[in-house]
Amino acid sequence: MHAVGCPGGLAVAATANSARPWHEAWAQAQVNEFYRRNSPTDHFDTAIAHADRIAAALMKMLRETTARMPGSAGITVVDLGADSGQLLRQMYRINAADEHPIDHVRWVGIDLRPRPFDLPAHIEWWTGIAPDVLRLMAPEGICGMVIAHEWLDDVPCPIVQRDDADVVREVWVDSVTGVESLGPKLDEDSPQMQWLHQWWWPVRHRGEIGLSRDVAWAAVCASLNVGTAVAIDYAHTREQRCAGDFDDGTLVAYRDGIVVRPVPDGSANITARVALDSCAAAASPSQLMQQRCVLDEPRWPLPHQAQLDPHRYAADFQRATAALTLRQRSGRGDFWWLRHDVGLRRP
């Protein structure tokens, strides 16, 4: 690769035989390699490790959604990027144990990987890229709930960076070595630059263009005939971006539980935080909520229970501690929930 020198920063590529735009290399590595061989939970601690708490909040939302649905249409619950199906398993158990369960629920997981061998028979499995599979398998639309839990952060998006002349350029990357270079400058009239001006401006150093996430989320919401779509993810707000909180961008990679340098060779899970406020504008009306405001306070065991039943006290204390991690600031409590309703009666 021949490059024009860019003192103090990345080289500006004149020709790049093995490099290409980051989002293209990212998509190739994730869709065709990493996700077909790996489970994300093998590489980093996803919030789905606490699926019981997330599932309980989603079941509460599902009950409220079904109560507001007109008519008596069957209920379908779809989980995008379902991995092992753990979230759906938990939701099913909670519903089955309820005194007044929601009847005739169809449970569906979608993932790039084949159906897990131990998945219960009552959970269907659709393999493929989520929006495409939804259009193919449910052309009439979904009545119920579509869940995107830590799914949008895996949707590849362009990475941009300012060069030493203060020009915003797209970042390119070598898929084998991970070596980056600066590609063409963004056209001022392009949709990408318009997105940056609206949602992430000024770009002081580096950032991500969330347009592909907006499109993906809008497609998910469009798959709803009536019901609720909910996205749950690491996110940031326009206020934070414009204040400079994420001037170095948020692209990161995980391998075997360790943060590693992002190299789009299929060996690690590559992710970036989501501009969920932009996604909300792409499918309005929508409601944005911080996770700490959605989940119930953990129930701590009373001190005297340690004397009466120490084993149960220890188990209850451990569960409450795990639940607390989902509400902590500068952690999973900084997750955001994005909700979009279609065709529901007023509450």
In brief:
By secondary structure, the protein is α+β, with helices and mostly antiparallel strands. It has helices at residues 22-37, 51-67, 86-97, 130-137, 191-199, 211-222, 238-242, 276-282, 291-294, 305-308, 310-325, and strands at 2-4, 12-15, 19-21, 75-80, 105-111, 123-127, 142-149, 159-162, 168-174, 180-185, 206-208, 224-234, 252-255, 258-260, 269-271, 286-290, 335-342. A hairpin with a 5-residue loop joins strand 9 and strand 10 (180-185).
Please tell me about this protein's structure.
The protein is an alpha+beta fold and 347 residues long. The chain has helices spanning 22-37, 51-67, 86-97, 130-137, 191-199, 211-222, 238-242, 276-282, 291-294, 305-308, 310-325, and strands at 2-4, 12-15, 19-21, 75-80, 105-111, 123-127, 142-149, 159-162, 168-174, 180-185, 206-208, 224-234, 252-255, 258-260, 269-271, 286-290, 335-342. The strands form 4 sheets. It has a 7-stranded mixed β-sheet, sandwiched between helices. Strands 3, 8, 9, 10 and 11 form a 5-stranded antiparallel β-sheet that branches. A 3-stranded antiparallel β-sheet has the order 14-13-15. A hairpin with a 5-residue loop joins strand 8 (159-162) and strand 9 (168-174). Helix 2 crosses helix 3 (86-97) and helix 6 packs across helix 8 (276-282). The model is unreliable at 1-8 (pLDDT under 50).
